[in-house]
Design goal:
Number of strands: 18
Strand content: 15-25%
CATH topology of the largest domain: Rossmann fold
CATH architecture of the largest domain: 3-Layer(aba) Sandwich
Number of helices: 9
Order of helices and strands: EEHEEEEEEEHEEHEHEHEHEEHHHEE
Family: Belongs to the TRAFAC class OBG-HflX-like GTPase superfamily. OBG GTPase family.
Domain OCT: 358-436
InterPro entries: G_OBG, GTP-bd, GTP-bd_Obg/CgtA, GTP-bd_prot_GTP1/OBG_C_sf, GTP1-OBG_CS, GTP1_OBG_dom, GTP1_OBG_dom_sf, OBG_GTPase
Mean pLDDT: 86
Helix content: 10-25%
CATH superfamily of the largest domain: P-loop containing nucleotide triphosphate hydrolases
Subunit structure: Monomer.
Enzyme class: hydrolase
Length: 436
């Protein structure tokens, strides 16, 4: 089994807020006592932190559930409960986080130490000391803690590299990487020797340095999942320059120019924006017979079929085996990198809008539906939040919740829908009778 994992689906659950407390003073010299219950503590957030020491998402193969601690309950003497510590989850550089339900990108984590809160903890419930008024100086009301955010996430790792090596299997990408860097990729005389991305650092004679990724070989149909398919293609999205490696010896009976067209077609089919990245054509295996003649034919076909107003890509004949032409290739790559900007991976339509954790004034406060057993079902974020934060062990809290429902217009809406006295109404798993 490969120890490289670049996708994962996980569940995260932030901590619930601690419940507020109902308590009263019992001091000898304090007349009439009074409320003394403190607030609950805040629930812990689930926070992703980039760790440059991680290289894969393998840790998420075996641990798919992450739950932060809940806040402590409020205490007597007006003391607040302790807030829970955030749950820190370390992820590798280049991790994209998506909401599994909407498919929207929450964040793209690329810098070491970068943090992002993927699930926010609930606030603590208020204790009865918060509800004291001149009319009700000794309230028996407290709130339950707010539930923490819970969501399913899709993690996708796209390797961080300045330059990506693309090309058909067995064109010499791994050999080239092993020669120009200290990386030790697996090299063999068969297709798909490379089944995971390999990274290496290049340092040119002029002192420039950049990261190169040798990515698994493409075949026709890769953008639809053929061969290693999209397992490869996602990793090229972060690169700024593409080195298109072509076997000029045609040792496998393929035409070098047709190879060039086929690979570009797959890149374009996967993501049209990949064609924005500048390419350098690397004519490899020039130490083999017929390579020079094939390169001449390749240049003629490229010139004949290229837009006359477009700039032809640079072509560098090399031999990874004899190290012919490598210095020139690396200097040209470094020069191209210097003048190539970063490419945005996602546009605004793919990104989730900045989260708003209050109530949306334009959203309906509640919805009414009817179950198969004729029970009226109430739902909606605002209503369910009020329900979850109500302490039903206290009569005053229950009456307060009833007043809140009435103020939201629930009674009138049920009556308008045809609810009659004695009908059952359900919120979550809680049922009560409708009183007209």
């Amino acid at each position: 089994m490969s120890m490289f994992l670049d996708t994962a689906k996980i569940q995260v659950k932030a901590g619930n807020g601690g419940d507020g407390m109902v308590a009263f003073r019992r001091e000898k010299y304090v007349p009439n006592g009074g409320p003394w219950g403190g607030d609950g503590g805040r629930g812990g957030n689930v926070v992703f932190v980039v760790d440059e020491g991680l290289r894969t998402l393998m840790d998420f193969r075996y641990n798919r559930h992450f739950k932060a601690q809940s806040g402590e309950k409020g205490m007597t003497k007006g003391m607040h409960g302790r807030g829970a510590e955030d749950l820190i989850v370390r992820v590798p550089q280049g991790t994209t986080v998506r909401d599994a339900e909407t498919g929207k990108v929450l964040t793209d984590l690329v810098e070491n130490g970068q943090e992002f809160i993927v699930a926010r903890g609930g606030r603590g419930g208020r204790g009865n000391i918060r509800f004291a008024t001149p009319k009700n100086p000794a309230p028996e009301i407290s709130e339950n803690g707010e539930p923490g955010q819970e969501r399913e996430l899709l993690l996708e790792l796209k390797v961080l590299a300045d330059v990506g090596l693309v090309g058909f299997p067995s064109v010499g990408k791994s050999t080239l990487l092993s020669v120009i860097t200290a990386a030790k990729p697996k090299i063999g005389a068969y297709h798909f020797t490379t089944i995971v991305p390999n990274l290496g650092m290049v340092r040119t004679h002029s002192g420039e340095s950049f990261a190169v990724a040798d990515l698994p070989g493409l075949i026709e149909g890769a953008s639809q999942g053929v061969g290693l398919g999209t397992q490869f293609l996602r990793h090229i999205e972060r690169t700024r320059v593409i080195l298109h490696v072509i076997d000029m010896s045609a040792s496998e009976g393929r035409d070098p120019y047709e190879d060039y067209l086929a690979i570009n077609k797959e890149l374009e089919s996967y993501n049209l924006r990949l064609m924005e990245r500048p390419q350098i054509i690397v004519a490899n295996k020039m130490d083999m017979p017929d390579s020079s003649e094939n390169l001449k034919i390749f240049k003629e076909k490229l010139s004949a079929n290229y837009d006359e107003f477009a700039e032809l890509p640079q072509i560098f004949p090399i031999s990874s085996l004899t190290k012919q032409g490598l210095a020139t290739l690396l200097d040209a790559t470094a020069e191209l990198l210097d003048k190539t900007p970063e490419f945005l991976l996602y546009d605004e339509s793919e990104m989730e809008e900045e989260a708003y954790y209050g109530f949306d004034e334009e959203a309906p406060a509640f919805e009414i539906s009817r179950d198969d057993d004729a029970t009226w079902v109430l739902s909606g974020d605002k209503l369910e939040k009020l329900f979850n934060m109500t302490n039903f062990d206290r009569d005053e809290a229950v009456m307060k919740f009833a007043r809140q429902l009435r103020g939201m217009g629930v009674d009138e809406a049920l009556r308008a829908r045809g609810a009659k006295d004695g009908d059952l109404v359900r919120i979550g798993k809680f049922e009560f009778e409708f009183v007209d």
